[in-house]
Amino acid sequence: MSPPSSPSPPPPEEKEKKEQTPDKQRDSLSPLHIEHHKSQWATAQDRSSSIVANSYRPSISQTAAERARRHLNAKLENPLADFSFNELRKMGRAYAGEHGLNDAQDVRALEIGACLARDPADLSHAKELGVTDAEYAVLSHELEHRWSQPRLLYLVIVICSACAAVQGMDETVVNGAQLFYAKEFGIGGQDPRSTWLVGLVNSAPYVCCAFIGCWLTTPFNHWFGRRGTIFLTCLFSALACFWQGFADSWWHMFISRFALGFGIGPKSATVPIYAAECTPPTIRGALVMQWQMWTAFGIMLGYVADLAFYGVADTPSVTGLNWRLMMGSAMVPAVVVCCFVYMCPESPRWYMSKGRHKEAYQAMCSLRFDKLQAARDQFYMAELLRAEENMKIGQSKIRELWSVPRNRRAMLASEIVMFMQQFCGINVPAYYSSSIFSTSGFSDKSALTASLGFGILNFLFALPAIHTIDTFGRRNLLLSTFPLMALTLLFTGFSFWIPASTPRIACIALGIYLFAMCYSPGEGPVPFTYSAEAYPLYVRTLGMSVATATTWACNAALSITWPSLLRVFGPQGAFGFYAAWNVVGWWLVLLFMPETKSKTLEELDQVFSVPTRIHASYGFRQIPYFVKRYVFRRKDVLPVDLLELDRERGVAMDLGVMHVI
């Protein structure tokens, strides 16, 4: 598969002034760690700091440590921005020599690739850099047709999507199976012991994820790499699913499902990282979004399996064959991933983190059409990795999550969306829809069919999120969908007061379906996307570990408590409980969650540097705007500007009319 031809590169522009500096006379240039580059980084950082201080009022009161963090985070946004082409050529040549890439074609590719890495979208200097017509055709085609990629990269995308489907299927096959194994294990009643044990068995994987599984991500990736971690976690998933099919008691089922958590936790954190490290930047964001979409697809497959095996009869030697096949069916996609994952190359960035740059280059070449693309992406990744390794602020990253105000606000917002992803109530229908439909008057088969409808809608309404999350923004999507989710949950709960008849069944199903339609474009994709971009790069991995642990812990809490909540308060009170949490979530997002849509790293630093009290005030001021703009449809109303509000606060502080917040 090769890209089409393209016209010759445009004539060269006037050369940069940097190209005329005495640096051009040097015959060689070491990588970033030599003193010349250190001084250039310091100069660039001081210049960036000056711009921020003059354009953004609150930065005047920043401590030296906070300014240093901003400088380093800006450095990570583009570590090559302040180097000339001549310097970058020499850096590329030095990189090739340092890591044994001595083939003449590889050296040339790294020299030119280092220059292109400064701004991959700018091909105006291509001819003067020595790019051939064929290479220019590849580079321009990449910009114009971002989804035209080598077949091996598509295999990586398919494997990552299959991993997400494994995750979704692992979560939902239990939905239908519990209709049968709960009775077989003597925990199918409505007494307190039975309801707590059903919840405990269902929650077992998520308890493991929260307290053990997700914390194994770092050591697994360190020891086994990205592919090895994916292989091991899918192997754990397959074996645990197989084991569940042979459970003969509730505690046996609990242990097998707890073991499933070792396959869910590290996989959920590793697969998006692997996809991001293998794919070019032009499609990276869309692939991160697709994790949630294909997880929803796996959830739907779980319901399909439940319905497919519902009618399987027992044999003389096996009782409960239908639910055993349901639980075991989730091993199939996991086995498929295990069979094909080693046909994909290892992550180039993982190789580089181990000092194996030559193998990283070979892997990158297999994921790109041309060596020039591979050299460009690898050189940029190497310099970014070097910059990250140099980010030692002087205190532990764990402490910095709490002690640095900018990080603390990012963590607050991230924890809110992760907490609300579970406490909006989505996993009530995801894990218990068959039981809910059965309670409302459905037969067991009809309950499984209705659950499949929920899974289909959950998947279909996740598809537009790839577009809407960047069009409407993360915060606006949540503010729009939380009230709707609250109303649909109330509608579902109140429908149980309708006398047992067809209208009651239809209303309950309608409420759950409408809830899925509201959840999928909002709280479905936003939490992981938001958490990944809210944190500064130097604490992002740790921040995501905390966020992931939060969502799994809340998932476990919901799974354990729902059967008892339903028994004590009835369906009206249980659904009303989560409807109330959606109202709470709306206020939390309004007051404490800044918008991150389409913002650079430096802009994110500015947004999260706004004091919490100011952002809460901004949220309150938005309410009249929302009413005038969206209720009364007035187009002349201007929205409140967060940074302008903070600048006013800075002026007020200088005049002595406000306390420092």
Automatic annotation (TrEMBL):
User: Ranges of Pro residues compositional bias?
Assistant: 1-11
Bias (Basic and acidic residues): 12-38
Question: What GO biological process terms are annotated to this protein in UniProt?
Answer: myo-inositol transport; polyol transmembrane transport
What GO cellular-component annotations does this UniProt entry give?
Answer: membrane
Q: Which PROSITE patterns did the record assign? A: MFS
What SUPFAM superfamilies would the database entry show? Answer: MFS general substrate transporter (SSF103473)
InterPro entries the record matches: MFS_dom, MFS_sugar_transport-like, MFS_trans_sf, Myo-inositol_Transporter, Sugar/inositol_transpt
Annotated keywords: Membrane, Transmembrane, Transmembrane helix, Transport
Protein name from the UniProt record: Major facilitator superfamily (MFS) profile domain-containing protein
Segments of this protein annotated with the region Disordered: 1-49
Q: Where is this chain compositionally biased, Polar residues type?
A: 40-49
Q: How is the protein disposed in the membrane?
A: Multi-pass membrane protein
Q: Where is the Major facilitator superfamily (MFS) profile domain?
A: 156-597
Record GO terms (molecular function): transmembrane transporter activity
Q: Where in the cell is it found?
A: Membrane
Similarity field: Belongs to the major facilitator superfamily. Sugar transporter (TC 2.A.1.1) family.
